[in-house]
Prior knowledge:
It is a single chain. The protein is mainly β and 302 residues long. It has 5 helices and 15 strands. The strands form 3 sheets. Strands 6, 7, 8, 9, 12, 13, 14 and 15 form an 8-stranded antiparallel beta sheet that branches. The mean pLDDT is 85.
Amino acid sequence: xxxxxxxIKRAEGLGLPIARNQFTATNKKPVPDPPFLVYLSTxxxxxxxxxxxxxxxxxxxxxxxxxxxxxxxEKQIEEKVLFDVEFRKYQAQIPQEDTTxxxxxxxxxxxxxxxxxxxxxxxxxxxxxxxxxxxxxxxxVTADICKPENLxxxxxxxxxxxxxxxxxxxKDDTGKKSKTIVTxxxxxxxxxxxxxxxxxxxxxxxxxxVTEDKVKKRRTVKIGGIDNRQGARYVICLHHKDAVDxxxxxxxxxxxxxxxxxxxxxxxxxxxxxxxxxLPMDEEGTLxxxxxxxxxSEAAAV
Length: 302
């Protein structure tokens, strides 16, 4: 029985650029020139017994070629990739991009592979926030940053990480054919700092300067003055602890670009909200890194 994963592996063997759903354009990795492949899938599972669960996958393999169709590439797909699968083939021109789309729709029914079942987590509870200056080279592993000396503060209201892509869609005049690519990506981390001292301002404001007077027992913070910018970047790691389902770590590199507000209220604790905008942490343009502990069965199946 041919699996969806086998079909994609065959497609990769053709040597053309290939991506799931769409190519994401970045400054260092623009969308490749045609010809290239894009594959899509939707899946439905049935069966109560995990060992006998059935996957019904509606797949599509799309070939994009410059200006007109390429019969030779189509032949390779049909003879080397989909030779044992029934498919429906159709073509459409995309005038705005001067390309032709040749799509192959197919259906795969397969059993869920051994060890393929993933853990269904219930993420419950807050997280600890760790922070460390980023030297611009290598992002530390979670074990190195999640240490008591790097604990930023105790937080209130939890923490959240938001990924927000921007899309561009090209459509033909009839609205029947379209193509969408990601043009920009933004990741922000939001949290509220409840335990606070003057040293925390350096994480909140790039122009903050902190001085301490041992005799007067005073710590003074000056903020403002564009010439005082440090250009500092920080590695921020959220560590969500879960003794049942396993720990989760979320890491970004960035700095606070949303300013801050400190309020003093008679019947409420002061919480300083922080919003960190992620910057690329490596040459691949990675904005966010998510890690989670795996179960023994998951690890054994890798």
